[in-house]
Amino acid sequence: MALTLLAASFVVFGALYLAPGSPASFLLSGRSASPAAIAAINAQYHLDDPFAVRYLRWLGDVLRGDFGRSITYRTDVSALLTDRLPTTLLLVAMTLTVVMVIGLLLGRLAAVRGGVTDSAVLVGTTFAVGTPSFVAAVLLQGLFAVRLGWFPSSGDGDGIADMLWHLTLPAVALALYLVGMLARVTRSAMLDALAGEHVTVARSRGVPERQVIRRHVLRNALGTVLTTAGLIVSTLLVSTILVESAFSVGGVGQLLELATTTKDFPTVQAISLIIVALFMAVNLVVDLLLPLVDPRIALTSGRSSA
Length: 306
What we know:
Blueprint: H1 2-15, H2 23-28, H3 35-44, H4 51-63, H5 77-113, H6 115-129, H7 133-147, H8 160-166, H9 168-194, H10 197-204, H11 209-246, H12 252-261, H13 265-293, H14 295-305
Protein name: ABC transporter permease
GO molecular function: dipeptide transmembrane transporter activity
Subcellular location: Cell membrane
């Protein structure tokens, strides 16, 4: 993980310098400036230093928890992230709750009941999976915020209750695609488990159907569901950028969109590196939880190493 994060930091830092334009052009706002003024800006942000020097200086500061100073906001990037990260984390938590509850419920109903219920879930999830988050954001905003006036159309509110109210539509917009994906994965995993011999044996012994589903079907499907849940969390970290911009939510996603537009290198680099680190952390947690959910994984690994 350390080596991967080091390589990612190099890519994150270097990729921005390949894009056209520079922070100096944004700071000048299209105005002409004397060579002395441009040189002062370059000196302030170390833009004239060799690439290797800039990267090593930035990496050393990051290891000390200093992400630099925002070119757009003229303040420390750490302070910007501290102000905006709670909003994004709350939005991700709300979305993840909706996805896990509804996705698991729909997948279970489709696998267990079959027939019309299964067909209805497949049709509904096909629609959900085929609807990108930014399209869902526009549709929900137009219907429930503008036309019906049930929810705010923008902002993130003040206080926890108001924030929950403001983030409801963004959470639904983010959850729509992911609910469809999780429901389909859950349905498929449970159908595979239902076809297993252990289920047939349990039923032949007179084990109640609810207990068969809970202990022998759903439990065996949890490994696949957990892996998908890790992918869902990783997807949310990226999808929030578009949805926060659509609803003008003052989170990290909107900050990244604005920082990219204005060539705010320190802010973009900090957020990108944090997203990479969170991706890695989520994958690590999933890998650690999988043997607890499905002991066969730990057993297989032990036999392979032996």
